[in-house]
Amino acid sequence: MSLSLKILLPILLTTKFCLCSSYSALSVSDNHQPDSLKTGWYFVIDRNGYKIQLEKTNKVYYLHPKPFISKNDIESVEVFLNKNGIYVLEMDFNNKATKIWEVATDKSFKEDSELAFVLNGKLVLQR
Fold it and tell me: In this model, does residue 43 exceed pLDDT 60?
């Protein structure tokens, strides 16, 4: 039996999310992204990382150049409006990514650092 982790996070709506209420993360294409980050979860780091602007804001972040969870680790993604009127992103991870997520969020909490989600080369979520 496959274990998965569901994460519920408020999101900043992007054009991609506005077009559909759910989609499979496995169908996301990175082929058209020269010189950009691949779809996945990243650690936000100091100014020596990959500089990227949060979609639809003026905020700039620096990310580790390699994701700790890639799109191949994400089994499904759904975006929905919760009962409080907030858009929520729900992800199911494979077994390996579930364990990595646990370690990454623990590290983020202990070090008071942030995590970021990149979709098709665009930073769409920072926590």
Answer: yes
State the Cα–Cα distance between residues 39 and 30, nearest whole angstrom. Answer: 7
Amino acid at 110: K
Query: How far is it, in rounded angstroms, from Cα 90 to Cα 77?
Result: 6
Nearest Cα residue to 38 out of 125, 124, 119: 119
What mean pLDDT, rounded, does the chain reach?
Answer: 77
CA separation for the pair 102, 95 (Å, rounded): 11
What are the backbone dihedrals phi and psi of residue 42, each rounded to the nearest 5 degrees, phi first?
-130, 155
Please provide the distance, in angstroms rounded to a whole number, between the alpha carbons at the two ends of the chain. 30
Q: What is the pLDDT of residue 47?
A: 80
Query: What span, in angstroms and rounded, lies between the C-alpha atoms of 125 and 96?
Result: 22
β-pair partners for 83: none
Query: Can you tell me the distance from the alpha carbon of 11 to that of 77, in angstroms, rounded to the nearest whole number?
Result: 13
* Res. 46 pLDDT band, cuts 50 70 90: confident
